[in-house]
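protien #1 (seq + structre)
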Amino acid sequence: MTALAAVQAASVPDRLQDLIHAPGVPPLAFALAFIAGAGHAVAPGHGKSLAAAYLVGSRGRLRDAAWLGGSVAAMHTLSVLVIGLAWTFLSLANVIRMEALTTWLQLAAGLVAVATGVWLVRRHLRGGGHTHGHSRSHDHQRSHTHEHAERPGLLMLGISGGLVPSPSAFLVLVTGLFLGRAGFALLLVLTFGVGMAVVLFGVGLLAIAGNSVVVRGANSHALLRLASRAAPVLAAVGITAVGVGITTFAAFHLTTVT
């Protein structure tokens, strides 16, 4: 079967698998890897709601959306590389089944999300730790305080969102390693991560834009002012609740796969 025929007959992950076998470096493979990464980020349960809630709850800015999308994609790429290399060269398959491994990772991701949500709740209830001032120097100090205060939460949510690898990205890497096309496979996995980052960045922009509308309207509407004040705590509670749900589901699933 030619690469073109494979593209016409299979799903996006299957097409990537077939293109790994094709000679050369087909440009189509990178387009499909990007689409697969974007599709993985669009699918339910891959951190979009958590990312949006975090950016609303932390009064996120453009750089926060970019950092969060990039950190999720970077963590996902790292998890694919580590597990793929261990699976190929360290016989990880003889130690644990893939289903059990991904469930353990899902449990860890849920616990990290819970920790992020609890941290946000405590920070907002204590006043957020921001410096409020009336001068330009105070505004500059507040900007730096905001940036440093958000970094732990951004890092934690990035780890949570990218900890569980995509099966298609994992298979592409392992196939490339077995076929001696490790460099090509690595580039495809990186492109997959870029597709994820673009989608999550877009979700972040929508969350920030929506939050900005509410904040601007709060100056003239009492209801919007109340929503603006309550949104950070509600978002933090939502992140905690989602994390508890993920953790509970993973713990229950572990009883059936181990």
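ok now protien #2
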Amino acid sequence: MKRSAAAPGRAVIYARVSSDRAGGRSVEEQVSECRTECERQAWPVADVLVDNDVSASRYATKARPEYARLQALLQPGDVLVMWEASRAQRDLKRYVELRDLCARRGVRWSYSGRLYDLSDGDDRFSTGLDALLAEKEAEQTRTRILRAHRANLADGKPHGRVPYGYRIIRDPETGKPVRREPHPGQAPLIAEAARRVLAGQSFASVVRWISERDDSLRWDAAKLRRLLINPTLAGFRVHTEVKDGVRGPRVIHRRGTWEPILSEDHHNDLVALFAARQSGPRGVPVKYLVSGIAECGVCGEKVWRGRGGTKKDGSRYEVYTCRPGRHAARRLDRVDEAVHTVVEEILISPTAVNALAETPPVDNAAATRLNELRRQLEAVETEIAEGRMPASTGGRVATRLEASIATAEVEATQIFVDPTVRRLATAPDPVAIWRDMPLLDQREFIKAVLHIRIERIGRGRWHDKRAGIVITPHRPQLEHPGTRGTTG
């Protein structure tokens, strides 16, 4: 093993930090120590490469662009300088690739104050041992995190970050977490926001209301929506479970040990409400049954009320049409009549009514992805809490993961029966309830149950009243001849 300084040559410095154990060394500190070593050895620094917030284990999900540049940068006689071996990789396969590259090009490798010649058998053995230790450490870190996660899951204990609405109570002597409990200032705000949304208040007004009472967060509709459908607030832990002999993963809701802020019924109603409305409850006054709900069959845009032709009495009739180009249009009253007919045909069918009350299946593929993103976030938070990752670095990683989690939550959220749909599905006379419903509730039912498309039917005065009106239930169980429109 070669310990003496080599003849002066170019130095290429590489630094990296991620959720791997970095001993609290930031990339800036790593580069500084590497420069000191280069000065001591009289190696002129040609390049400094830095990969920040990137893992080097076999579980890494992101590429390391600067590390990849070594293939093009390293020249015969260069010295690759790092703070420690694990900055290059925590994966034995990647070590072999780097070892062979250095040996092939006559590049020496310096780390931890030692210089290695990768064409020398003894040095290959020593660096190989260091690579094995780095890989083992990565595996141990992952195992510890997963073990803690499984233990907390089995006991129903909370795991991961503390959501808005809760706080951690710690042991006054040891400082260790004892329990999670509702935050006395935040929990009542969440409960009241949920009550206001379920009461039908404008969602924008609810966002403004909570913003005025707590400015510690930058509230917006997306943030409040994610918070209100978080199962944690209803006292649930959610995870995916894979069993032998069972096809695909299952999403499991387990009752946690902490006090819920929202009841299970309120949680289910909120999830269903947001799922049906997609962008969240709006509370905007409406005048027409399917404006902004039905779609143009030509361009796919939503249709709205517009002015149509002239009736025999000289008055103008109204139509539903898309605003960008008026590609297709149908008389507003005939579309509304067709929709009412389809809804009532569904509500008088026992089979269809039973199907309305059933909870749709979960998208397990999306749930698996969501679970993996949450695991990654928990791993990053563990590294920050234990001082193995700088808070500034971890904060940036966590922000990106949270954005991905928010998207995955929309795709993986359990869709419960919409409150309006459940009301009709369980009513003794659903048709009578439907006819007496406010327009806003009728629209919510339509959005949750039907897809409506307005097709172009061509010129001419005489068409079937249903021509160009295509109404399709979201669930096949509701399909019957009355739901199929004609296109003329």
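Confidence is low (pLDDT under 50) at residues 1-6, 244-249, 279-283, 483-488.
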